[in-house]
Write a structure and sequence with these properties.
The protein is α+β, with helices and mostly antiparallel strands. It is built from five helices and eleven strands. About 25% of the residues lie in helices and about 15% in strands. The strands form three sheets. Strands 1, 2, 3, 4, 7 and 9 form a six-stranded antiparallel β-sheet that branches. The chain has a three-stranded antiparallel β-sheet with strand order 6-5-8, with no helix packed on it. Bound molecules: 2-oxoglutaric acid.
């Protein structure tokens, strides 16, 4: 990314709480992602009660989804705000069919982060001084005014109330973006999916990121498949929070026949 573009994206996140990075995924990668999301959706329907689980931890489910943490332009923006050791907190597929109702306005970090619950002493005010997490929504379809694009309130990351402002909120807008783009936003920004009033499903990948020291939505360091981690190399150790783990070994890091840590994991030996 050229320096000026980087500066512009940074400024947008600082002022508005969001930016759109265009052309991160190719048309082929979007097509492949869409096919894989359809496959996962069909498989999930065959497993009663597993309809959501099929969409979690995408990087373990098809190689195309490994792209989401390999994109240098995106990593540059994420790491500028969250630090070099920023951690991926989850990777979810989203298919919103025609007729899907709007999701309510919310901020993220409400499961495990600082938007989850407050103490009495907080007096209803959340932490807004620093960027603690960024959500990245990959547009696998074009995001349009009619097909359920994300809507949000620019600048609302600075609104320090724990509760969203009551609707209608002045300034609420729809983020239209071409497929292959990624919407990157401060997870304090009030946002939600809009109603899909179109004729086709809207496809997306949701991939929240956190500061390394915040509790993530999914402990990816314990979930990621060994071969995925191996392909991710040094970058993977940061992205999945492996380098942030307290020193101990998982079974898959242990070379059973040799009776010792596998190459690359000696430093995590538990004595
Ligand atoms: O699907 C969307 O447009 C919004 C997703 C969302 O609200 C979230 O990831 O928290």
């Amino acid at each position: 990314m050229i320096e000026q573009d980087f500066r512009d994206h940074v400024l947008r996140v600082k002022l508005d709480g969001y930016t759109v990075l265009p052309d991160l995924l190719t048309g082929e990668e979007c097509d492949e992602s869409r096919q894989q999301l359809d496959r996962l959706s069909e498989e999930a329907e065959c497993q009663p009660g597993a309809s959501v689980g099929g969409f979690n931890n995408l990087f373990n489910k098809a190689r195309v989804f490994e792209r989401i943490y390999q994109l240098t332009d995106l990593l540059q923006v994420l790491r500028y705000f969250l630090g070099e050791d920023a951690v991926l907190s989850g990777a979810y597929g989203s298919i919103r069919p025609p007729g899907a109702k709007a999701g309510g306005l919310h901020s993220d970090g409400s499961q495990t982060g600082h938007n989850r619950i407050l103490s009495e002493a907080d007096n209803g005010r959340r932490i807004t001084s620093h960027v603690l997490g960024l959500n990245v929504i990959f547009c696998i379809s074009d995001f349009t005014r009619t097909n359920g694009a994300t809507h949000l309130i620019p600048g609302s990351f600075q609104y320090d109330s724990f509760r969203p402002p009551p609707p209608p909120v002045p300034g609420q807008m729809m983020v239209e973006a071409t497929r292959g783009s990624a919407l990157v936003f401060n997870y304090n920004t009030w946002h939600g999916a809009s109603e899909n009033r179109g004729q086709e499903s809207r496809y997306a990948i949701l991939s929240p990121w956190r500061r390394q020291w915040l509790r993530p939505e999914n402990e990816l360091s314990r979930i990621v498949d060994p071969e995925v981690l191996e392909r991710a190399g040094e970058n993977g150790k940061k992205v999945f929070g492996i380098s942030a783990l307290a020193p101990y070994l998982e079974a898959w890091q242990w070379d059973r026949p040799a009776g010792g840590p596998k190459p690359g994991w000696e430093h995590l030996r538990r004595d």
